[in-house]
Amino acid sequence: MGDVTLAVSQGFYSSMDEQQHLSWGGKVKFATASTRIGTGKNDYAAQLIADQISGRFQSLISIGYQVLGSPAGQQLKNGYFGTLGGYFQASEQTGLGADFKASQVISLPGTEQRELRVYASQRLGIDATLQAYILKGFSDGSPAQGVGLMFYFVP
């Protein structure tokens, strides 16, 4: 199992017709993975997110800054990241989406991160959602590929 991530977000603007939103968010990636697949250090991030809803489609863009924990013997660089994505509400309970994430170089020598994530979400109840995803990296600084499962709970 990889690292465990805790994320929170809070909206601070919605248009009069509720079709555009702005929110801020924070994330902590706890170093729970073995050091073979993780750094062994916590990472922190904050971001600003803008989204727009048009019918059953939602588009979003975000920009953020991350503070990375450095493992022994290596100094990782903090930096900016951004995401561009879309989500389609296929039914009341199910959605499909994709997002592309890019970030600055985090280590020297190194390369920036560029990755595409495609996912399906299933609402499990009024407060919980399960999401499965596949990931494809497009730079040496990203994983070549990956799969994952996320559980969202919104009280």
How would you describe what is shown here?
0% of the residues lie in helices and 62% in strands. It is built from no helices and nine strands. It has strands spanning 4-14, 20-30, 43-54, 57-67, 79-89, 94-103, 113-123, 128-137, 145-153. Strands 1-2-3-4-5-6-7-8-9 form a nine-stranded antiparallel beta sheet, with no helix packed on it. Strand 7 (113-123) and strand 8 (128-137) form a beta hairpin.
Order of helices and strands: EEEEEEEEE
Number of helices: 0
The helix fraction, in percent, is under 10%
Structural class: mainly beta
- The rough form would be described as globular
Widest sheet, order of strands: 1-2-3-4-5-6-7-8-9
Q: How would you characterize the largest beta sheet?
A: 9 strands, antiparallel
CA-atom Rg in angstroms: 16 Å
Report how far the terminal alpha carbons are from each other: 26 Å
Q: Which residues sit in consecutive blocks of at least 5 with pLDDT less than 50?
A: none
Strand coverage percent? over 45%
Mean pLDDT, nearest integer?
91
Count of DSSP strands: 9
Short synopsis of the structure:
The chain is mainly beta and 155 residues long.
Keyphrases for this structure?
155 residues, mainly beta, globular
Write the layout of secondary structure elements.
Elements: E1 4-14, E2 20-30, E3 43-54, E4 57-67, E5 79-89, E6 94-103, E7 113-123, E8 128-137, E9 145-153
Antiparallel strand pairs: 1-2, 2-3, 3-4, 4-5, 5-6, 6-7, 7-8, 8-9
